[in-house]
Amino acid sequence: MQRVCCFVLLTVSKRLEFSASRRLHVDRWSDDENLAVFGPETNARYGSGRNYVAYFVFTGPVDPATGMLINISEIKERAGRIVRERFDHKFLNEDNPSFRAVPPTAENIARQLYIDVAPLFSDNVATLVACHLTESPERSATFYSNGACEANYWFEFSAARKTMSPQLSADENASLFGPAIAIHGHNYRVRLTYRSTKPFSAQDRPLVRYDAIDPCLHALQDELDHRYLNEDVAGLANYPMTTESLAEYIYQRANTMTPLDRVRLHERADFFAEVWKNRTVFLGMRMALHAAHRLRAVTLSDAENAKLYGKCNNPLGHGHGYLTETTIGGEYDERSGTLYDFVAFRKAIQESLEPWRDRHLDLETEDFRNAPSTGENIVRALWPKIDNRLNQQLVRLRLWETANNRFALRRI
Q1: Of the candidates 149, 176, 211, 221, which has an alpha carbon nearest to the alpha carbon of residue 345?
Q2: Degrees, nearest 5: CA angle 299-74-366
Q3: Alpha-carbon distance 12 to 69, whole Å?
Q4: Pairing label, strands 127-136, 48-59
Q5: Ramachandran assignment for 117, one of left (phi > 0), alpha (psi -120 to 50 degrees), beta (any other)
Q6: Pair 374, 296: CB distance under 8 Å
Q7: DSSP, residue by residue, 47-71
Q8: What pLDDT is attached to residue 7?
Q9: C-alpha span between 212 and 35 (Å, rounded)
Q10: What mean pLDDT is predicted for residues 220-235?
Q11: Phi, psi for 392 (deg, rounded to 5)
């Protein structure tokens, strides 16, 4: 197996779902104050329901024999027990003692899940480093082991544009952007991320009050939705009309209303740009890979392999519709409005995945002759293949084995 740069962090994430009701309300506040902090749903006297998704994120060393950082079935069993007993199908305000004194905001639930689950893995070399909670397509939060907390708010808009830069000549625009210089449209999806400036403890208020975030989201939608971005938005007049540049503009506009940490702009479900408060720009692209494999450690007996890997040790193999997400960062060219050429970005990923596409990873590739084809080893083997084709600008690589199991490498 190829070695990856030593300055990368490997994580394994397990996704679990639960359904619950909750009321966002503080009894000692007036109705007007509750409304300002939580919005209209505070009026749901007996609670309002959500279908939650929790991601438990672990890091640690990979066992060279088994190829695993942690046995994902252990996460499912241990964390799943906490979710079932304390969160699933509960009225959180009354059924979970943790929310008797504080409202079950997304931030407070993410924190409590982390607090409840982390001690269950004290006997494991892998450690829980974060818990991410999605409560709706528009709202999520993440609590980290160092006490940091983030709140995410999503909104959508549809708009038309010509991909081009007013600082380039017509020939340069045509060469760089190809057919995208013609008028076309996208259904954009935007994530605004706010981060706590000090260690987060359970508190009455969400990181961003409703009376601050709601006007911000509506102002951005009113400005961008159903517009021809090149001409209808005055603030974009001198901006290159690219995904990167548009993400930066949205960051600057949102930051003037409610200071934030970063913005992600999805132009499509499989392509996004991200801008952080330090002006760092990133591009991300998702691409599918279909392949077969069998989990088996050569140093273990047949019985030991069957016990460790379960049905994934099927002698005839099995397969996955893997999904990769490649994120790059680097110097942003303000003249062209680009971080990296879109076509070249896509080609680099395609070429990296092609030798594995529709193959049995253990039998038809050299990458897993001497190492189990676990998600951990797959993402580690894929990193240098992509990074070398992208001028070492790869900053994060994610691999979904299933919707519930995710493996990631991040440059640190």
Answers
A1: 176
A2: 40
A3: 7
A4: antiparallel
A5: alpha
A6: no
A7: -EEEEEEEEEEEE-PPPTTT--SS-
A8: 77
A9: 12
A10: 97
A11: 55, 35
Instruction: Compute, in degrees rounded to 10, the torsion defined by CA atoms 190, 196, 197, 203.
Output: 150
Residue indicated by tokens 């981060």: 195
> 262: Cβ–Cβ under 8 A, 6 or more apart, which residues?
193, 251, 274, 275, 276, 277
Tokens linked to 379: 């993402």
pLDDT tens per residue, range 67-119:
999 999 999 999 999 999 999 999 999 999 999 999 999 999 999 999 999 99
Could you tell me if 265 and 272 are in contact, meaning their C-beta atoms sit under 8 angstroms apart?
A: yes
Vertex 155, ends 150 and 159: CA angle to 5°? 140
For residue 245, give the H/E element and its range: helix 243-257
Question: Residue 324: which residues within 8 A CB-CB, separation 6 or more?
Answer: 286, 287, 288, 289, 349, 353, 382, 397, 398, 399, 400
